[in-house]
Amino acid sequence: MLKNVLPLCFSIAIVHILWGQPTDPIVPDRPGLGESAYLVPKGIFQIESGVNIEWDRENGIHRRSYTYNATTLRFGISGSFELRAAANLQQDYLSKLLSEQTSELGLTPWSLGFKTRIAENKGWIPRTALLGNLAIPYSASPTFRTSYIAPSFLIPMEWDLSDQVLLTINTGAFWDGENAAPAYFGSFGLDYVLRPGLGVFIESYMDFDEQGSFLPGFDAGVVWRLTPDIQLDLSTGIGLNPEMADGFLNGGVSYRIGRKREANTGNAVLQEPAHRHNTPGPYRSPYPNGRVSFRAKT
After folding, report:
1. CA-CA distance, 20 to 273, in Å (whole number)?
2. In a domain, 283, yes or no
3. How many domains would you assign to the chain?
4. Residue 34 within any structural domain of the chain
5. Contact criterion met (CB below 8 Å) for 184 and 214
6. What is the value of pTM for the model shown?
7. Quick count: other Cβ atoms within 10 Å of Cβ 150?
8. Which residues form the domain of 216?
9. Cβ neighbours, 10 Å, residue 273
10. Are 155 and 178 in contact (CB under 8 A)?
11. Is position 118 within any domain?
12. pLDDT, tens digit, 9 for 90 and up, residues 241-287
Protein backbone atom coordinates (compact mmCIF):
# COMPACT_ATOMS: atom_id res chain seq x y z
CA MET A 1 0.00 0.00 0.00
CA LEU A 2 2.78 2.44 0.96
CA LYS A 3 4.65 1.67 -2.27
CA ASN A 4 1.56 2.74 -4.22
CA VAL A 5 0.89 5.92 -2.22
CA LEU A 6 4.42 7.37 -2.24
CA PRO A 7 4.75 7.55 -6.06
CA LEU A 8 1.32 9.17 -6.28
CA CYS A 9 2.24 11.84 -3.72
CA PHE A 10 5.56 12.43 -5.48
CA SER A 11 3.83 12.84 -8.86
CA ILE A 12 1.33 15.35 -7.44
CA ALA A 13 4.17 17.35 -5.88
CA ILE A 14 6.14 17.44 -9.16
CA VAL A 15 3.07 18.57 -11.15
CA HIS A 16 2.36 21.26 -8.56
CA ILE A 17 5.94 22.59 -8.71
CA LEU A 18 6.21 22.54 -12.49
CA TRP A 19 2.88 24.19 -13.12
CA GLY A 20 3.31 26.80 -10.40
CA GLN A 21 0.66 28.45 -8.23
CA PRO A 22 -1.62 31.43 -8.82
CA THR A 23 -0.80 34.41 -6.63
CA ASP A 24 -4.32 34.89 -5.20
CA PRO A 25 -6.04 32.37 -2.91
CA ILE A 26 -8.54 29.83 -4.19
CA VAL A 27 -12.19 30.96 -4.44
CA PRO A 28 -14.48 27.89 -4.69
CA ASP A 29 -18.21 27.81 -5.45
CA ARG A 30 -18.85 25.76 -2.31
CA PRO A 31 -20.34 25.61 0.29
CA GLY A 32 -23.78 27.22 0.43
CA LEU A 33 -26.64 27.19 -2.06
CA GLY A 34 -25.65 30.41 -3.80
CA GLU A 35 -22.75 30.67 -6.25
CA SER A 36 -19.79 33.04 -6.23
CA ALA A 37 -19.33 35.66 -8.94
CA TYR A 38 -15.60 34.85 -9.12
CA LEU A 39 -14.19 32.78 -11.98
CA VAL A 40 -11.30 30.34 -12.13
CA PRO A 41 -8.35 32.25 -13.68
CA LYS A 42 -7.07 31.38 -17.14
CA GLY A 43 -5.14 28.11 -17.25
CA ILE A 44 -6.21 27.03 -13.75
CA PHE A 45 -7.84 23.63 -13.12
CA GLN A 46 -9.98 23.49 -9.97
CA ILE A 47 -11.65 20.50 -8.27
CA GLU A 48 -14.46 20.98 -5.74
CA SER A 49 -15.79 17.85 -4.05
CA GLY A 50 -17.84 17.00 -0.99
CA VAL A 51 -20.26 14.71 0.80
CA ASN A 52 -23.80 15.47 1.91
CA ILE A 53 -26.29 13.90 4.32
CA GLU A 54 -29.93 14.96 4.13
CA TRP A 55 -32.77 13.73 6.34
CA ASP A 56 -36.52 14.05 6.83
CA ARG A 57 -39.07 12.38 9.11
CA GLU A 58 -42.83 12.73 8.74
CA ASN A 59 -45.87 10.55 9.51
CA GLY A 60 -43.71 7.57 10.45
CA ILE A 61 -41.65 7.74 7.23
CA HIS A 62 -37.94 8.41 7.55
CA ARG A 63 -36.01 9.52 4.46
CA ARG A 64 -32.23 9.87 4.23
CA SER A 65 -30.13 10.83 1.24
CA TYR A 66 -26.34 10.51 0.98
CA THR A 67 -24.26 12.08 -1.76
CA TYR A 68 -20.75 10.62 -1.65
CA ASN A 69 -18.81 12.52 -4.31
CA ALA A 70 -20.57 15.71 -5.32
CA THR A 71 -17.76 16.90 -7.59
CA THR A 72 -17.41 19.93 -9.84
CA LEU A 73 -14.46 20.31 -12.24
CA ARG A 74 -13.68 23.86 -13.40
CA PHE A 75 -11.14 25.17 -15.92
CA GLY A 76 -10.38 28.79 -16.80
CA ILE A 77 -10.45 29.37 -20.57
CA SER A 78 -9.81 33.11 -20.27
CA GLY A 79 -9.91 35.79 -17.61
CA SER A 80 -13.67 36.09 -18.07
CA PHE A 81 -14.83 32.58 -19.06
CA GLU A 82 -14.62 29.10 -17.54
CA LEU A 83 -15.94 25.64 -18.41
CA ARG A 84 -17.37 23.25 -15.80
CA ALA A 85 -18.52 19.65 -15.52
CA ALA A 86 -20.07 17.86 -12.56
CA ALA A 87 -21.40 14.52 -11.35
CA ASN A 88 -22.90 13.00 -8.19
CA LEU A 89 -23.13 9.52 -6.72
CA GLN A 90 -26.25 9.40 -4.56
CA GLN A 91 -27.91 6.88 -2.25
CA ASP A 92 -31.46 7.31 -0.95
CA TYR A 93 -32.94 5.39 1.99
CA LEU A 94 -36.63 5.09 2.87
CA SER A 95 -37.91 3.37 6.01
CA LYS A 96 -41.42 3.06 7.44
CA LEU A 97 -42.73 1.83 10.75
CA LEU A 98 -42.99 -1.98 10.94
CA SER A 99 -41.48 -2.38 7.47
CA GLU A 100 -38.08 -3.01 5.95
CA GLN A 101 -35.79 -0.24 4.79
CA THR A 102 -35.38 0.30 1.05
CA SER A 103 -32.32 1.79 -0.62
CA GLU A 104 -31.45 3.16 -4.07
CA LEU A 105 -27.85 3.88 -5.15
CA GLY A 106 -26.79 5.43 -8.44
CA LEU A 107 -25.42 8.26 -10.52
CA THR A 108 -27.48 11.40 -10.94
CA PRO A 109 -27.43 13.25 -14.30
CA TRP A 110 -24.03 14.76 -14.97
CA SER A 111 -23.87 18.39 -15.99
CA LEU A 112 -21.87 20.49 -18.43
CA GLY A 113 -21.77 24.26 -18.15
CA PHE A 114 -19.94 27.56 -18.12
CA LYS A 115 -19.51 30.72 -16.08
CA THR A 116 -18.70 34.11 -17.57
CA ARG A 117 -17.98 37.49 -15.99
CA ILE A 118 -20.45 40.31 -16.64
CA ALA A 119 -19.23 43.14 -14.37
CA GLU A 120 -16.83 43.99 -11.54
CA ASN A 121 -17.85 45.54 -8.22
CA LYS A 122 -17.68 49.34 -8.57
CA GLY A 123 -19.67 51.26 -5.97
CA TRP A 124 -23.26 50.07 -6.05
CA ILE A 125 -22.65 47.95 -9.18
CA PRO A 126 -22.08 44.35 -8.00
CA ARG A 127 -19.48 41.89 -9.18
CA THR A 128 -21.68 39.84 -11.51
CA ALA A 129 -21.43 36.60 -13.46
CA LEU A 130 -23.69 34.37 -15.55
CA LEU A 131 -23.67 30.62 -14.94
CA GLY A 132 -25.36 28.18 -17.34
CA ASN A 133 -25.70 24.39 -17.09
CA LEU A 134 -27.23 21.44 -18.90
CA ALA A 135 -28.03 18.33 -16.84
CA ILE A 136 -27.54 15.30 -19.13
CA PRO A 137 -29.68 12.33 -18.00
CA TYR A 138 -28.62 9.57 -20.41
CA SER A 139 -25.83 8.05 -18.30
CA ALA A 140 -27.70 8.42 -15.00
CA SER A 141 -29.00 5.44 -13.05
CA PRO A 142 -32.68 4.63 -13.76
CA THR A 143 -33.81 5.81 -10.32
CA PHE A 144 -32.36 9.30 -10.82
CA ARG A 145 -32.71 9.63 -14.59
CA THR A 146 -34.89 12.45 -15.92
CA SER A 147 -36.85 12.26 -19.16
CA TYR A 148 -35.21 15.25 -20.79
CA ILE A 149 -32.08 17.40 -20.65
CA ALA A 150 -32.56 19.98 -17.90
CA PRO A 151 -31.15 23.48 -18.51
CA SER A 152 -30.59 26.11 -15.84
CA PHE A 153 -29.07 29.54 -15.46
CA LEU A 154 -28.00 31.60 -12.48
CA ILE A 155 -26.82 35.19 -11.98
CA PRO A 156 -24.59 35.60 -8.89
CA MET A 157 -24.01 39.17 -7.66
CA GLU A 158 -21.56 40.26 -4.94
CA TRP A 159 -20.83 43.47 -3.06
CA ASP A 160 -17.68 43.95 -0.94
CA LEU A 161 -19.24 45.79 2.00
CA SER A 162 -15.85 45.94 3.77
CA ASP A 163 -12.58 44.00 3.95
CA GLN A 164 -14.39 41.52 6.23
CA VAL A 165 -17.98 41.42 4.96
CA LEU A 166 -19.27 40.15 1.60
CA LEU A 167 -22.91 40.30 0.47
CA THR A 168 -24.01 37.75 -2.17
CA ILE A 169 -27.36 37.59 -3.99
CA ASN A 170 -28.25 34.90 -6.52
CA THR A 171 -31.21 34.74 -8.86
CA GLY A 172 -32.00 32.26 -11.61
CA ALA A 173 -34.27 29.64 -13.13
CA PHE A 174 -34.05 25.90 -13.64
CA TRP A 175 -35.95 23.06 -15.28
CA ASP A 176 -36.34 19.66 -13.60
CA GLY A 177 -36.07 17.51 -16.74
CA GLU A 178 -39.72 16.48 -16.56
CA ASN A 179 -41.89 19.61 -16.89
CA ALA A 180 -41.83 22.37 -19.49
CA ALA A 181 -42.42 25.11 -16.94
CA PRO A 182 -39.35 26.35 -15.03
CA ALA A 183 -38.93 26.96 -11.33
CA TYR A 184 -37.08 29.96 -9.91
CA PHE A 185 -34.30 30.26 -7.35
CA GLY A 186 -33.01 33.05 -5.15
CA SER A 187 -30.53 33.34 -2.28
CA PHE A 188 -29.18 36.01 0.06
CA GLY A 189 -25.90 35.42 1.90
CA LEU A 190 -23.41 37.22 4.15
CA ASP A 191 -19.77 36.16 4.59
CA TYR A 192 -17.67 37.36 7.53
CA VAL A 193 -13.91 36.99 7.88
CA LEU A 194 -12.77 35.92 11.36
CA ARG A 195 -9.11 36.08 10.36
CA PRO A 196 -7.18 35.58 7.10
CA GLY A 197 -7.95 32.07 5.87
CA LEU A 198 -10.92 31.50 8.21
CA GLY A 199 -14.47 32.68 7.55
CA VAL A 200 -18.12 31.99 8.36
CA PHE A 201 -21.35 32.58 6.44
CA ILE A 202 -25.12 32.60 6.80
CA GLU A 203 -27.57 32.26 3.92
CA SER A 204 -31.28 32.16 3.21
CA TYR A 205 -32.65 30.71 -0.02
CA MET A 206 -35.83 29.63 -1.73
CA ASP A 207 -37.19 28.19 -4.93
CA PHE A 208 -40.72 28.53 -6.23
CA ASP A 209 -42.74 27.83 -9.37
CA GLU A 210 -45.83 29.04 -11.18
CA GLN A 211 -47.98 26.30 -9.61
CA GLY A 212 -47.57 27.85 -6.16
CA SER A 213 -44.78 25.69 -4.73
CA PHE A 214 -42.61 27.65 -2.28
CA LEU A 215 -39.55 26.02 -0.72
CA PRO A 216 -37.52 28.22 1.67
CA GLY A 217 -34.44 27.21 3.66
CA PHE A 218 -31.56 28.52 5.75
CA ASP A 219 -27.95 27.38 6.06
CA ALA A 220 -24.70 28.43 7.70
CA GLY A 221 -21.14 27.20 7.76
CA VAL A 222 -17.41 27.75 8.09
CA VAL A 223 -14.54 27.70 5.56
CA TRP A 224 -10.87 27.16 6.34
CA ARG A 225 -8.18 27.81 3.76
CA LEU A 226 -5.22 25.54 4.55
CA THR A 227 -3.00 26.91 1.75
CA PRO A 228 -3.59 29.33 -1.15
CA ASP A 229 -4.66 26.28 -3.21
CA ILE A 230 -6.62 24.14 -0.70
CA GLN A 231 -9.81 25.05 1.18
CA LEU A 232 -12.01 22.96 3.50
CA ASP A 233 -15.66 23.68 4.33
CA LEU A 234 -18.44 22.48 6.62
CA SER A 235 -22.07 23.64 6.53
CA THR A 236 -25.52 22.68 7.75
CA GLY A 237 -29.05 23.80 6.90
CA ILE A 238 -32.74 23.41 7.72
CA GLY A 239 -36.00 23.61 5.79
CA LEU A 240 -38.39 26.38 6.77
CA ASN A 241 -41.70 24.80 5.83
CA PRO A 242 -43.20 21.27 5.85
CA GLU A 243 -42.53 20.77 2.14
CA MET A 244 -38.77 20.85 2.68
CA ALA A 245 -36.55 18.14 4.13
CA ASP A 246 -35.77 18.63 7.82
CA GLY A 247 -32.05 19.32 7.42
CA PHE A 248 -28.68 18.52 5.90
CA LEU A 249 -24.99 18.38 6.79
CA ASN A 250 -22.34 18.99 4.14
CA GLY A 251 -18.55 18.97 4.07
CA GLY A 252 -15.96 19.19 1.33
CA VAL A 253 -12.59 20.21 -0.03
CA SER A 254 -11.53 22.40 -2.97
CA TYR A 255 -8.13 22.19 -4.67
CA ARG A 256 -6.52 23.78 -7.73
CA ILE A 257 -3.46 23.52 -9.96
CA GLY A 258 -2.45 25.73 -12.86
CA ARG A 259 0.23 26.87 -15.24
CA LYS A 260 0.21 30.61 -14.74
CA ARG A 261 0.85 32.92 -11.82
CA GLU A 262 -2.10 35.06 -12.70
CA ALA A 263 -4.02 37.26 -10.27
CA ASN A 264 -7.79 36.82 -10.16
CA THR A 265 -8.91 40.35 -9.34
CA GLY A 266 -6.65 41.85 -6.67
CA ASN A 267 -9.71 42.60 -4.56
CA ALA A 268 -9.12 42.72 -0.79
CA VAL A 269 -11.93 40.29 -0.07
CA LEU A 270 -10.27 37.75 -2.38
CA GLN A 271 -6.70 38.31 -1.14
CA GLU A 272 -7.27 38.05 2.59
CA PRO A 273 -10.40 36.19 3.72
CA ALA A 274 -11.51 32.65 3.13
CA HIS A 275 -14.43 32.73 0.72
CA ARG A 276 -17.29 30.31 0.58
CA HIS A 277 -19.82 29.66 -1.89
CA ASN A 278 -22.29 24.17 -2.97
CA THR A 279 -24.83 23.27 -4.09
CA PRO A 280 -27.54 21.89 -5.83
CA GLY A 281 -26.96 18.66 -7.59
CA PRO A 282 -28.23 18.05 -11.08
CA TYR A 283 -31.51 16.35 -10.11
CA ARG A 284 -34.43 17.99 -8.31
CA SER A 285 -32.36 21.07 -7.60
CA PRO A 286 -32.19 24.77 -8.38
CA TYR A 287 -29.23 24.50 -10.77
CA PRO A 288 -27.13 21.50 -11.76
CA ASN A 289 -23.52 22.26 -10.91
CA GLY A 290 -22.71 18.91 -9.41
CA ARG A 291 -23.00 19.74 -5.75
CA VAL A 292 -25.74 18.79 -3.35
CA SER A 293 -29.07 20.53 -3.12
CA PHE A 294 -31.33 20.98 -0.15
CA ARG A 295 -34.15 19.34 -2.01
CA ALA A 296 -37.85 19.28 -1.53
CA LYS A 297 -39.36 16.05 -0.33
CA THR A 298 -40.53 13.64 -3.02
Report:
1. 22
2. no
3. 1
4. yes
5. no
6. 0.79
7. 26
8. 2-271
9. 24
10. no
11. yes
12. 888 889 999 999 999 987 544 444 433 233 334 445 433 332 233 33
